[in-house]
Amino acid sequence: MTPAQFEELVAHALERVPVELARLVDNVVFVIEADAPADDPDLLGLYEGIALTERDSRYAGALPDRISIFRNPILRICETFEDVVDEVIITVVHEIAHHFGIDDDRLHELGYD
């Protein structure tokens, strides 16, 4: 899969986020990177920032939070195109959930491993 095709899948996953939730996403940049950090090469996505539930008056003027989606790790675990589509959706939702302050334990309970 080409980087452009993968980027299109991420864009489609973002379009699937309900409008009511998408409107609440605040000060976040989404990036697609080829590889995960060297210290965690199997990582599929990463949220870096201050969750909405943790923001207070000191947050004003902060740099945007960052959601990274890692192409090669996702492609490595998927066998089919459909698997890639599903994994991209799960990863995008998972990272957006972190922006809303939902931790990994709760995401696991909801089926977003």
In short:
This protein has five helices and three strands, in the order ααβββααα. It is of the alpha+beta class and 113 residues long.
Please characterize this protein's 3D structure.
There is one protein chain. With 113 residues, the protein is of the alpha+beta class. It has helices at residues 3-15, 19-22, 71-77, 81-99, 104-109; strands spanning 28-33, 45-48, 65-70. It has a three-stranded mixed β-sheet with strand order 1-3-2. Helix 1 (3-15) crosses helix 4 (81-99). The longest helix has 19 residues, at 81-99. The two termini are 23 Å apart.
Notable traits:
14% strand, 113 residues, 3 strands, 43% helix, 3-stranded mixed sheet, globular, alpha+beta
Class per helix and strand makeup: alpha+beta
* Arithmetic mean pLDDT: 91
**Tell me, what's the shape?**
globular
First CA to last CA: what distance? 23 Å
Helix content: 40-55%
